[in-house]
Structures are given as C-alpha cells and as structure tokens.
UniProtKB/TrEMBL annotation, chain B:
SUPFAM superfamilies: CO dehydrogenase flavoprotein C-terminal domain-like, FAD-binding/transporter-associated domain-like. Pfam families: CO_deh_flav_C, FAD_binding_5. Gene3D superfamilies: 3.30.465.10, CO dehydrogenase flavoprotein, C-terminal domain, Uridine Diphospho-n-acetylenolpyruvylglucosamine Reductase, domain 2. GO terms for molecular function: FAD binding; oxidoreductase activity. This is FAD-binding PCMH-type domain-containing protein. Coiled coil: none annotated. It comes from the Archaea. The keyword Transmembrane helix does not apply. PROSITE patterns: FAD_PCMH. Residues 1-160 form the FAD-binding PCMH-type domain. The keyword Flavoprotein applies. Keywords: FAD, Flavoprotein, Oxidoreductase.
C-alpha cells in the first residue's frame, strides 16, 4: 500500500492505495462517489471521464498513484442538488439525458470545453465529446444542451 | 535509470498508460514493476531552437495540439495529432509513448519521419541519437536496448519551398488508421523536386514504410500529375500487411494507399508553391 494525497472536488484526501489500483475504482469504491461510471474499461467509451487539473481524462486507464498531488473533479464536484451546474440544468432542459450512463462523463467533457472556449462551434462541441459514447440519444440533444449551457454561462437569458 | 537497470525486463516504463494499461488488462503483458516517467520533471517540453524543434518524450499529444509553434511551423505534427484518438486520450497519451509502443498503425511516427525527426535516447552508457526512421524493429518492437529510454524528439524545420501533407483513412477519426500517409516535398527554384519524403503507415507492414524508390522517381523532375501517380504506385507496391488484419485487406490498403499518396503529394506540392494541374480528384 502507498499513501497518496490529492484534491477531490475541492477537498484534500489522504488515502492508502495499492500500486495496481485504478483511479476509477478508488473514486467509486473507496470514496463512494458513484457518479463516475465503469463502461468499457479500455478507453473507448468515456463513461469514466473525470477532470484532472481541469482536463478530461479516463479514470479507468489511470493508476491511482499517478494522481498524487493533483486535483480531480468528478460529476459530484460541479454542482449541488439545490444548485445544479448550468450544464447539468441545460442537459435536463434540452432533454439530453435518457438512460443517463454517459451523462456524467459527457457533462465533464462539456465543462472542460466551455471553461476554455465559452462560445464553441458545433464542430468544436462534437470534437470535445467525441470520446464520450452515448447509445441512446444520437447526440443531437446533447449538442443542443451544450449550446444552451454555453449561452446561459455567457449570461444570455435562455 | 537506476530503477530500470535494477529491474531490467521485469519492469515496464509507463507514461500516459493508454496503451500499456489496456494491454495489461487484456493480459497481453504482465510486468512485475511499472516505472513511471511522468514524475520526471523536465521531460515534458516543446522548445524551438533555431531550425529545430525539441520535444520532450512525456509531452502529451494535447500539448502538441495546443502549441502555437507547432501549428505555425510544424503543421504536419498538428494534423497527425488532431486525428488521433479523443480529447481524453490526447490529454493522457504522450509523444514518446506513441513512438515507443511501435504500433504499426500509430499516426505520429509517419508525420515525424516525413519531417526527418531524430531521437535522443539515454541509457546506462550515456546518450545516443538515432533517426526515427531506423528506430522501429517490428510490431511493438524498437531498437531500444534494456535500460534505455527515449528522452527527446528532435524535428527539423522544413526547408524553404517545402510543403507537407498528412492523410489518414480510418473508420472513424478516433479509430486506428487503415492507412496513413505523410509526405514532405521541397522544390528547387525552377519548381523541380529537390527532395521528397514519402512515408506510409497504418499497418501496411510490421513497421511504417518510407518509399525511397518512389522518392527517387520525383527527384529533379517537375511533379506533373502522371509522374506523381506513378510515384504513388511505386510507393504502394510490396506492402507486407497481415492478410488477417481486422481493419482492411492488403489489397484494399494498397489500392487506397495509391490514391492517398497521390493526393498527399499534390497537396504538399500546392503548399510548396508548385503548380498542379489537378483536374480530377483521384
């Protein structure tokens, strides 16, 4: 076991992990944050996406020891039940959620995009969520939701 | 380095982990130790020095993609990186990993070979350099010896009157390549070809292929469409891809390769400022 210290959703955590532990399993099993999903386990589907120092990465292909000293944001860290993040609200309003399994990863990829580029083109949105597979929606409403969130985050009243 | 020599072949180096961990999960490999390169500070950088670009081995693909220097002056690298994987993968995967895994379908190596890249390798006996072109020994095999690691990739700035092109054919953009083609051509003042570098990857053999024979055809000549077509045909003969490849048959790869090489050469020619009489798409 090795002790690591990292920030998760703004809070410092010190935790003992095995060398082979994956970040995904530590987040879900040790920290009990079940919003991050296990999908393919091989970096194809993006359901396990979390933000590492603000950038989307795949927690199923990241060793927990590798995040020592770094900052992780999961879906639980971007809003609260009372105050959803504008992207979360937009996903609901635009009907962009069906089964919901891809949603946390999708929203985190969208957040990383909008944090850097507040006014992305449709092409840029597609590129940003290319690594997040959705088997239900066909993506049209997801793209609409991200466009809606972008407008609201820029201060437009829509 | 000490860890590498202590554990020898019981250990594997890990950088981004996007290939290595998948192989470990599939039980293709089972190293007893993993030695992370990501803790070594000073191995991740993009630095332009005169006419060369130095890239540290653990620089992520996303960092290459976001680099203004690369976008402006080494556009071939940007093009290859942008069609590689997804944002998440590019945030994790490194240039060194994309090279050292020696997967025949990798996208960066053809572009880097077209740009005449050299590798700086460190090991127990000090440093050595090697052209990237000579680095691959087979599928997932390189010429790194036990205890050695890749430290830096040095890319030559394309000379004046050069044009480059990278074309990748794959099922979807983030998928592995069926065929990828990278070329760099340089013209003389009279628009004849001064130098051509034609590189084909995407699993057309155990390693990428640089077609010197096709390059020779172009040397000193005006790059007219007929000649370019012939060079493309020469470049795409003698592929030794596995007939069992899941992505495409050898015949398909050769057929489509000819089209892509020709297109890439004409695109590069245009960028180099040469005149192309280009009335048909293929």
């Amino acid at each position: 076991m090795k002790e690591i210290e990292f920030t998760i959703n703004g809070r410092k955590k010190r935790i003992a992990v095995r060398p082979k532990d994956l970040l995904l399993n530590v987040i879900r099993e040790e920290l009990g944050l079940k919003g991050t999903k296990y999908g393919c386990g091989t970096g194809e589907c993006g359901a396990c996406t979390v933000l590492l120092d603000g950038r989307p990465i795949l927690s199923c292909l990241t060793l927990a020891v590798a995040v020592n000293g770094k900052s992780i944001t999961t879906i639980e860290g971007i809003g609260t039940d009372e105050h959803l993040h504008p992207i979360q609200q937009a996903f609901i309003d635009a009907g962009a959620i069906q089964c919901g399994y891809c949603t946390p990863g999708m929203i985190l990829s969208a957040k990383a995009l909008l944090d850097k580029n507040p006014n992305p083109s449709e092409e840029e949105i597609k590129e940003a969520i290319k690594g997040n597979l959705c088997r239900c929606t066909g993506y049209v409403k997801i793209i609409a939701a991200i466009q809606l969130a972008a407008k609201r985050m820029r201060g437009e009243r829509v | 380095m000490a860890l590498l020599s202590r554990y020898g072949d019981k250990a594997k180096l890990i950088a981004g982990g996007t290939d290595l961990l998948v192989d470990m999960k599939n039980e293709k490999i089972n190293p007893q130790y993993l030695i992370s390169l990501m803790k070594i500070t000073g191995l991740s950088y993009i630095a332009e020095e005169g006419d060369v670009l130095r890239i540290g081995a653990t620089t992520t693909l996303r960092e290459l993609e976001e680099s203004q220097i690369i976008e402006k002056r080494y556009g071939l690298i940007s093009k290859a990186v942008k069609c590689l994987g997804t944002v998440q993968i590019r945030n994790m995967a490194t240039i060194g990993g994309n090279i050292c895994n020696a997967v025949p379908s990798a996208d960066l190596p053809p572009a880097l070979v077209a740009l005449n890249a050299t590798l700086k390798i460190v090991g127990p006996n000090g440093e050595r350099t090697m052209p990237l072109e000579d680095f691959f020994a087979g599928v997932k095999k390189t010429k790194l010896s036990v205890g050695e690691l890749l430290k830096e990739i040095i890319v030559e700035r394309p000379p004046a009157r050069s044009g480059t092109a990278f074309i990748k054919l794959s099922r979807t953009a983030e998928d592995l390549a069926i065929v990828n083609v990278a070329v760099r051509i340089t013209l003389n003042e009279d628009d004849t070809c001064r130098e051509a570098r034609i590189v084909i990857g995407g699993g057309v053999g155990p390693t990428l292929i640089r077609s010197r024979e096709a390059e020779k055809l172009l040397l000193g000549k005006k790059m007219e469409e007929e000649l370019v077509k012939r060079a493309a045909e020469v470049a795409c003969t003698g592929f030794s891809c596995r007939p069992t490849s899941i992505r495409a048959s050898p015949e398909y790869k050769a057929e489509v390769g000819r089209v892509l090489v020709k297109r890439a050469l004409l695109e590069a020619l245009k960028k180099a400022g040469g005149v192309v009489e280009d009335d048909e798409r293929n």
